[in-house]
Structures are given as C-alpha cells and as structure tokens.
Design goal:
Radius of gyration: 11 Å
Mean pLDDT: 93
Low-confidence stretches: none
Strand content: 15-25%
Oligomer: single chain
Length: 72
C-alpha cells in the first residue's frame, strides 16, 4: 500500500471509525488515538478489531515522530 493510494482515504479504524495512518516500514495502519496497529498482509489491511495490536508508550512516541516527519 502506498501513501497516495486512494483506498487509504476510505479506510477507518473498526473501533472508533477514525482515520488511520500508514506505517510503510512496519507494513501496518496505525490509530494513534487508541494506540492500535493493524497489519497489512500481502497488501490487504487486516481491519478486524481482533487484529489490532496494542502499542506501548515508547513505540507510540516513536511512531508519532515518524508520522510527523512523513507529513512534512
């Protein structure tokens, strides 16, 4: 999945229905509000609530820093 993929604008977190951010290096979509990471397997986002992996505080800070750097 690419950052300019039109599908990315349509995808939402299955729990809070908010937008997700693409983490290309981790091959995942990230919800910073709930600190959940959803894997992308073979190009297909796994967006079942049970697929979300809780992200710890240190990883959350690292991912936010990476997302901010990517956005600018």
């Amino acid at each position: 999945m690419n950052p300019d993929d039109p599908l990315l604008a349509l995808l939402a977190c299955p729990l809070d229905k908010g937008p997700l951010s693409l983490l290309r290096e981790e091959e995942a979509l990230y919800n910073p509000r709930l600190r959940l990471s959803y894997p992308i397997l073979d190009g297909i986002p796994q967006l079942l609530p049970s697929s979300g992996r809780k992200v710890g505080a240190d990883d959350h800070k690292r991912l936010l820093t990476r997302l901010k750097a990517t956005a600018t």
